Amino acid sequence: MPTNFTVVPVRDGRKPQEDEDDDNVFREEDEDAPFPGDGMPKENSPFINNTDHDKGSLYDGKNLALFEEEMDSNPMVSSLLNKLANYTNLTQGVKEHEEADDDEGSAKTKKPVKSPALGTLIGVYLPCLQNILGVILFLRLTWIVGTAGIMEALAIVFMTCSCTMLTAISMSAIATNGVVPAGGSYYMISRSLGPEFGGAVGLCFYLGTTFAGSMYILGTIEILLTYIVPSAAIFKADKKEDEPEALLNNMRVYGTCCLTLMSLVVFVGVKYVNKLALVFLACVILSILAIYAGVIKSAFEPPDFPVCLLGNRTLKNHNFDHCLKTMEVDNVTVTTKLWSLFCDSPYPNATCNKYFELNNVTEIQGIPGLTSGVIRDNMWGDYGPNGMLVEKKDQLSVPALDTSQDINMPYVANDITTFFTLLVGIYFPSVTGIMAGSNRSGDLRDAQKSIPIGTIMAIATTTFIYISSVVLFGACIEGVVLRDKFGDSVKGNLVIGILAWPSPWVIVIGSFFSCCGAGLQSLTGAPRLLQAIARDGIVPFLQVFGHGKANGEPTWALLLTAGICEIGILIASLDAVAPILSMFFLMCYLFVNLACALQTLLRTPNWRPRFKFYHWALSFLGASLCLSLMFISSWFYALVAMLIAGCIYKYIEYRGAEKEWGDGIRGLSLNAARYALIRLEEAPPHTKNWRPQLLVLLNLDSDHVVKHPRLLSFCTQLKAGKGLTIVGSVLEGTFMTKEAEVKKSEQNIKSSMTTERTKGFCHVVASSNLRDGFSHLIQSAGLGGMKHNTVLMAWPGTWKQATDAVSWKNFIETVRETTAAHQALLVAKNVDSFPTNAERLGEGTIDVWWIVHDGGLLMLLPFLLRQHKVWRKCKMRIFTVANMDDNSIQMKKDLQMFLYHLRLDAEVEVVEMQDSDISAFTYEKTLVMEQRSQMLKQMQLSRTEREREAQLIHDRNTASHAALNDKADTGPDRVHMTWTKDKFLTERNRNRAEANMGVRDLFNMKPEWESLNQSNVRRMHTAVRLNEVVVNRSQGAHLVLLNMPGPPKNRGGDENCILYGQTPVHSASTASLRHASLPGFVGGRSADVRRTSAGQNVNLWFVWHGTISGNCAAIM
Description:
This protein is an alpha/beta fold and 1116 residues long. Helices cover 49% and strands 8% of the residues. Residues 709-827, 837-1050 form the SLC12A transporter C-terminal domain.
């Protein structure tokens, strides 16, 4: 992208001088102008924080008058550049809280905020150095070197430092991709991977920081009680085997007191912690320098720290002064204090430990020096179980047969079982702290430059320190001393301290203050991290922790942090707490690497880091290394940490506030969706994968609210979240005039979808008329291979009351277009009575009337519905209709075998319908239907006249039903499973006589049946007869599904289709179906929900022909 360009002033026809003074849009800023930048009032912008005086300002220029209407939303380039140049990023952090504390209670005017002024050295390098170097270096590194050996210790250092270096590279790329506000890793992960990952990993990072505070406090107490004032221990062990438990109890008591004191310091004022930060940093640096000075001095003059060995076993040098069994005093041989430790009396003839009798004591130097060659003995590790004695392998000894009393002897032994992976987990916290620079990004002069350089240099420096320390410790210190964790063999001195120059107290005091400072910083940073997460609002139950004191101090978050930190204190073991916080930090680093890799691979336009030395392969390598180290350190803790993060992720996904941060996961989803859509379109879906992909056409009322929400309930019960669901509607008008109504309608539909638990997409279009709008939806809904194959809509129940024929004509045209698009159609009548998602239907049936073969969709519908809890207890019944020349017994056997192969459990019944004559009622209904249709075509009836006409037809229908119900028996005896010739003739003659009598009673006129359209008569006859059978057989069913034929090819008979569906039918029994709809429609399936007089819900669904490719493709 070119960055060099020339600004050319635009001139009009006036003088050049006037052009330069008045009309140059890009003129320089006037110092006295009330609005800096271009000397004009600034335009409002969606991404610039404008002040109040900017609002409502008008554009005064003339050269860009073409764009003056857009100035309210889109600023001029000159104005934008001016505001971006003055952009600052001061966080509401510790510095602001200090200023608020200083100004509290005073009426001082607010001081102008100073610009960030910290550079790379002070702002990033030294804070990272202070956070990385800490308790593990001073208390555990020598023990790790002695236990693992130099080679394996170097492997541990290399793996962990490589992990942090790769993470730092990924973090540098993210941190330099735009302005980085304060927030550290949480901000980077949440804005890169989305609120779900950001919240989950942010809380894990918070827990890691909190447990790090526990670790530092435990390190402080260990230094205090072991090396500074051992006599301050409250719990003392009478027996040697009780010493570990006594130490843990002392750690718990003193650790709790120390945590309380530190929490009070943080609560009173963080400014005191910040003022001591330089002291803590000086302690770390002086301690490191003292170690290197001691190593150099040991090459010429090793310090004198003797170690006493009994045979090859190392002795605790606490209760004796001389490494001798006996000694000459005034030419008299006397026993030493060491003798008393192994014998039952101080006399030479006392009974002593067998191993003590067989072996001599020797004294070696604990620090032989750099040139002693001890490095060869320390190259390889010496792992062992808990209680294993620390022995010098090349020292001669005579083994004793009885070792049962060794545990009570003053030997140096392992306090825990040691193995390589344990050491990895204990060591990893010593390389954490690389986020210190990014956490202070708001205080940096140039964060995009300082963060990468300072962080990488700090990691390189600490890596050199750790690697050199491993080699130098192994080359200078005796192996048995290295494996002595608490320095018992060197009179209780800190092992790393005896190597330092000029005195061990330099390291002891330095490490003590270093651990104190690190603990205070953890208790300062963790509550602010929790406060940032709470204020983001992504975890609802944490919102209370977003509040604090008047100056913003996170008081509630501090209390929670202290409570969690106390859990680590109660564990009381530094070696047990370290792997816990290793898991949380490793998970954080894992997602930092993953975020960088995803952003790089997706190549989003906004991904333009200034730091160029990154690659997606390095990020993936870092993420893989983090995951490997998690399971290497502790597979159990790794699973627990991942489970915690997973639970937080799902909770935020389910209950969290919706945030749109342009994260990489969304970009990954878009890429995956695009790839999947392209793959889907390569070939048509196989019949085994076929399922209804619904387009739901909704009607909205005048307030743009869904008229039939139960249509969405049915969709939920049918789909159960599987497959595609598109919910659409149409508003009449143009999009320019209906934009607000369209958005409101979409919001209402989405709200109804949420209420009815319908998972899918919403699409509302504005069209000049409803018919074209629904046509556009049917044609264009979906994308690529994800298109609907089934249309679901409601029956136009108010078509009679409509002022014109638009309602039913739109319906018929929708049916035709669905058929033309080779899609199935479901039409629901009286769908408002459909069961809700909360209802649970009891024992009942779903009846399927399989009249024509539709590819299997009619049988698939009840199968899918029964997967939902609403319909789970319902059974499936399948009815099919046999003609006179069909073998009904064989049909039933064939249908049962057919269902067996389809793996469907259903009862099968074959219904035989007699070939009876057309009844007088049928002729009368057909005549009324045609007369009304003709009248509506020839006359322009007013609304009142049309309503009167509709009422007249309804009254005629009611009278006709009453007459036929009194004189005609339409009971179950009309339907027989088998027929004889005599039964057939008797039934036909009786029907003819009753029908003629009914007509003569009803009409005092001669019916003009000869002029009726015989096709309409036959269709009406089929509708009446079939509905009679359905009423008789399926009165107790919860749901009835049946096919419907297509609409007439002649558009002149469209209105007749609606009338066929409204044909009233009565049964001879007292229970009747009011307004029972009958087959007579096209290309789809329809459902009719109605209530019988017995109070039963009968859901009657008419199923039209759907084009499902293959034979029974939907349920194969």
